Amino acid sequence: MPHTVRHLLLHPSRLWSRHEVLQRPSPVPQEPGVYGWYFRDIPDGVPTDGCHRHAGMTLLYVGISPRRPPVNGAPPSRQQLRKRIRYHFRGNAEGSTLRLTLGCLLSTRLGIELRRVGGGTRHTFASGEALLSDWMQDNAFVCWAPHPDPRTCEEELIRQLVLPLNLEGNSHAFRPKLSALRSAARGRAGQLPIA
């Protein structure tokens, strides 16, 4: 991983809010790369010992775009930073593992719960997605580093940094608890009527 990618994520010239990212034109480049999520308010129970801090915020999660090629033989994603970051800010838990994680962690505080929607196979926070977006507007900030091979960068960052909200490839002690929390939310959703 080039030093510049790590530097851009750990010492960004600025952190971008939901409002800024969703503006048109968006400041996020239409290139592949890595992004880092910093938080002002930490969801209850998330350990932050050893986490990197910048401008009064705590780095808890890194992601990439495009994501890893699917193992089922489907065509690889051609998504880039702009579309992916904007989706995290305004999409739903079915298409954003970050939103799924945050919603599960904040379900009691925000009064939201994971529900089956549509035909019953997709999971979102239904009307609670708007509350989650509002929370992210106040507390979630992002930066990015364009790179032609983001997968390699992501793996190294997860190994080198303390990132409690990343699941894949992460050996952080919080990983099993977070995984169980998400599984329990899916289990509860399966018992509820389709929203």
Describe it for me?
- With 195 residues, the protein is α+β, with helices and mostly antiparallel strands.
- The protein has one domain.
- It is 39% helix and 16% strand.
- The strands form two sheets. A four-stranded antiparallel β-sheet has the order 2-3-1-6. Strands 4-5 form a two-stranded antiparallel ribbon.
- A hairpin with a 2-residue loop joins strand 2 and strand 3.
- It is globular, with a radius of gyration of 16 Å.
- The mean pLDDT is 94.
User: What's the total number of strands?
Assistant: 6
Q: How many structural domains does the protein architecture include? A: 1
Largest sheet: 4 strands, antiparallel
Q: Using the CA coordinates, give the radius of gyration.
A: 16 Å
SS field, number of helical segments: 8
Question: In a nutshell, what does this entry contain?
Answer:
It is built from eight helices and six strands. With 195 residues, it is of the alpha+beta class. Helix 4 crosses helix 8.
Features:
single chain; 195 residues; alpha+beta; two-stranded antiparallel ribbon; 8 helices; 6 strands; 39% helix; globular
What's the helix and strand layout?
Layout: H1 3-10, H2 18-22, E1 33-39, E2 53-54, E3 57-65, H3 81-90, H4 97-105, H5 107-110, E4 115-117, E5 122-124, H6 128-139, E6 140-146, H7 150-160, H8 175-191
Antiparallel strand pairs: 1-3, 1-6, 2-3, 4-5
